[in-house]
Amino acid sequence: MELPTIIQDVVEHLSRLPGVGGKTAQRYALAMAKWHHEDVTSLGRAIGQITELRKCIKCGMFSDDDLCHICDSTRAGSSVLCVVENISDCIAIEKSGTFRGLYYILGGVLNPLMGIGPDELGLDRLIRRIKEEEIGEVILAINPSVEGDATCSYINQIMPEDSSAQRIGFGIPMGGSLEYLDAMTISKALENKKKM
Ligand SMILES: [Zn+2]
Q1: What's the predicted TM-score (pTM) here?
Q2: Picking from 60-69, 120-129, 168-177, which range would have the lowest pLDDT averaged per residue?
Q3: With CB atoms 3.0 to 4.6 Å apart as the test, which of 20, 71, 101, 154 could cross-link to 67 if both were Cys?
Q4: Which CATH code is given to the segment(s) 54-195?
Q5: What's residue 184's pLDDT?
């Protein structure tokens, strides 16, 4: 059965979301078709605002202002910096409630084949921040993968002399992600960090 073009269009958009297949997307679209007009337009407006989302100038976390609620808090004086691959990893660590230092979000890992080098990840900004904020301990909470491992080695090589880098211990297989770990595993991984 052919659904109206409007529904098909919504289904196509929704099925681009992670974890949402065609079936689920269709269920969502059909459910929304029953909503009140104001509720649907308000959802559309909320989604539209995502394009105006800002990022913290220090760590790269989504933020309402120049600085996020972590960089603009008492944690700002911390000498411990946790480097993560993505915002979702940062959110997962924050949810675990075990880390009280600062973050730096790379937005990816080194991948020469995809054209992602040190510049794309802002590694010079990372090193500048480590120096300027006198960060003594850098925790590399980068997910284990060939590229992730190479990224950790690279950062370790360019670390300022009076700072040290440690990589978090993992109980997850290669290719796994912090995003999908429970709070307990994350706090254990943070505890079991090893010097690079
Ligand atoms: Zn921040």
Answers
A1: 0.81
A2: 168-177
A3: 71
A4: 3.40.1360.10
A5: 83
Looking at the chain, the whole-number percentage of residues with pLDDT higher than 70 is: 98
Tell which residue, 104, 101, 94, 162, has the closest CA to residue 129: 104
| Domain(s) of CATH 1.10.8.420: residues in the chain | 5-52
Bridge-based pairing state of the strands 137-141 and 80-84: parallel
Residues with CB under 5 A from ligand 1 (ion): 56, 58-59, 61, 68, 71
Please give the distance, rounded to the nearest whole angstrom, from the Cα atom of residue 161 to the centre of ligand 1.
24
State how far the alpha carbon of 189 is from the alpha carbons of 59, 97, 112, 142, 181, in Å: 21, 13, 28, 11, 10
Q: In the CATH hierarchy, which fold is given to the domain comprising 5-52?
A: Helicase, Ruva Protein; domain 3 (1.10.8)
For CATH 3.40.1360.10, list the domain ranges present in the chain. Answer: 54-195
pLDDT tens-place string over residues 50-68: 998 999 999 999 999 999 9
Ligand 1 centroid distance, CA of 6 (Å):
40
CA of 43 to the centre of ligand 1 (A): 27
Report d(CA 46, CA 86) in Å as an integer. 23
